[in-house]
Design a protein that fits this description.
With 472 residues, this protein is of the alpha+beta class. Helix content is 22%, strand content 19%. The strands form seven sheets. The chain has a five-stranded mixed beta sheet with strand order 15-16-22-21-20, with no helix packed on it. The chain has a four-stranded mixed beta sheet with strand order 5-6-7-11, with helices on both faces.
């Protein structure tokens, strides 16, 4: 009998859908040690009857996930923790176990991170029905349909803000979506406390299958696209949330080289259990290092500490990162006011104490392991870079079939202005951003003229909206 590994089990086809290979992210390099661990006795999941596979509303989808998917992910988390002899075991639990209001449907918890017999929610998540919401609704010219699409993002964004964590997810019977949030400042002054739940209307309400329920999510959205779902803090005008970054996994994905739902959820749990997952203004690359002493290097995602940098390691200047994040954290000052160094050190010490002396977290072991350099990833790779995460191929196909995206030409309308949208290539020259307008004439613009929108950037002309996936 061929011995299985954790990766083999997480890549097995989902039991209730016809699995087909699709382009997906490859994060195996970052979690190579954990995914390569042999797994002789993975959980045996009773597939039940055909009735157990019927999804009629969010409640039955939650039951399905609890029976067939979550036990495998939790089994992988526990097995890796046991093999690596970690003191902390992470568990994907019902969201009601956590301190978050609402509550969310799901949460990652640990017995080492509790307050008054309640768990801190390290990774809030929500369940949505794919039948009531499609990822391509994000490109819809119908204002109501597009607005419906934004609601889950506001919802899980609320939970992430309350938990003061940067990651969250939305899972449906069609897709799994990982989200990462960051903040920006919009003025001077001292940041107030953590954001209140009412900053992310609407409140969390379960919607029956015959209602206006929505599911899943794709894209990097402009703040303006949320309409009333503002990401601003009314009591702290100096910061607000940036459009979330995302990655998508399909239920149809299977096999090596593809990002299956179970693999995606496992890896996101590993990220959420990382060294420092507070919401900040900006983040270093996932596979990067920082220097904390003459012979002390720490991996920014896993918390692994080494005396000598691995080959081809990406060393990031922590001082510049701290400056970038100084205005974005919950306990940070204004952009010009700086950050309280003592508070920052105390918070880091608090994070380490929570880990009970661990040398990292679930994914943070193997001090001498050489992390592989980032490979040439596919378009929606897990790099939390909106320029690379925009519109995975599976969704482009859907949109092209509906003529909502026509590469190199007209592409429907701008969701925010209803102007006819045109794809353009932008070139930077002498601090100017140049592109050819509808008539082929060269147009000069500044970066401030471009607005971040779903999947890229948009420039508003008199009659047309010009769109580019990435500014140079």
């Amino acid at each position: 009998m061929v011995q299985q590994t954790v990766l083999d089990v997480l890549l097995e086809p989902n039991p209730w859908l016809d699995a087909s290979s699709v382009a997906a992210v490859v994060v195996e390099s970052l979690f190579r040690q954990q995914l390569s661990i042999p797994w002789k006795k993975p959980p045996i999941i009773d597939q039940g009857t055909a009735y157990d596979h019927e999804i009629r509303d969010e409640k039955t989808l939650d039951i399905f996930l609890s029976k067939f998917l979550v036990p495998v992910v939790n089994g992988a988390l526990a097995h890796v923790s046991d093999v690596l002899k970690l003191k902390e075991v992470f568990y994907l639990a019902p969201g009601s176990w956590g301190l978050t209001n609402g509550p969310p449907d799901w949460g990652l918890v640990s017995r080492h991170r509790m307050s008054e017999d309640r768990y801190y929610n390290l990774l809030p998540g929500d369940t949505k029905l794919h039948a009531k919401w499609r990822p391509n609704m994000a490109q819809s010219a119908n204002v109501k349909e597009h607005y419906q699409w934004t609601l889950p993002v506001s919802q899980v964004g609320t939970y992430a803000a309350e938990s003061e964590v940067r990651y969250s997810f939305i899972i449906s019977d069609g897709h799994f979506v990982a989200l990462r949030y960051s903040t920006e400042t919009s003025g001077q002054g001292t940041a107030a406390g953590r954001p209140r739940r009412d900053l992310f209307d609407p409140s969390h309400q379960r919607v029956a299958s015959d209602g206006t329920d929505i599911s899943s999510i794709m894209g990097a959205m402009s703040i303006d696209s949320f309409g009333a779902q503002s990401y601003s803090d009314n009591n702290a005008a100096n910061w607000e949330f940036l459009p979330p970054e995302y990655a998508v996994a399909s239920w149809r994905a299977k096999g090596r080289g593809n990002w299956t739902v179970k693999l995606a959820l496992f890896c996101l749990c590993c990220l959420a259990a990382g060294d420092d997952v507070r919401i900040g203004r900006s983040y270093p690359p996932l596979d990067s290092w920082r220097q904390e002493g003459p012979r002390r290097f720490v991996h920014n995602t896993t918390g692994v500490e080494v005396k000598k940098l691995p080959k081809d390691a990406n060393l990031v200047d922590e001082e510049s990162l701290d400056q970038d994040q100084s205005a974005g954290g919950y306990a940070s000052g204004a952009e010009e006011g700086g950050n309280d160094e003592n508070e920052e050190m105390e918070h880091r010490q608090h994070q380490r104490e929570h880990s009970e002396g661990l040398e990292g977290s679930l994914e943070g072991k193997g001090r001498d392991e050489e992390y592989l350099p980032e490979e040439q990833q596919l378009e929606h790779q897990l790099q939390f870079d909106t320029s690379q995460w925009s519109q995975p191929e599976i969704y482009r196909d859907e949109l092209e079939e509906r003529n909502e995206i026509l590469q190199g030409g007209d592409s429907g309308v701008s969701p925010s202005t209803q102007k006819k949208r045109i794809y353009v290539n932008v070139v930077r020259k002498n601090h100017q951003y140049l592109f050819a307008d509808r008539k082929g004439q060269q147009t000069s613009s500044e970066k401030s003229d471009w607005t971040r929108v779903l999947g890229g950037w948009e420039y508003q002309g008199k009659k047309h909206a010009y769109f580019t996936a990435k500014l140079p």
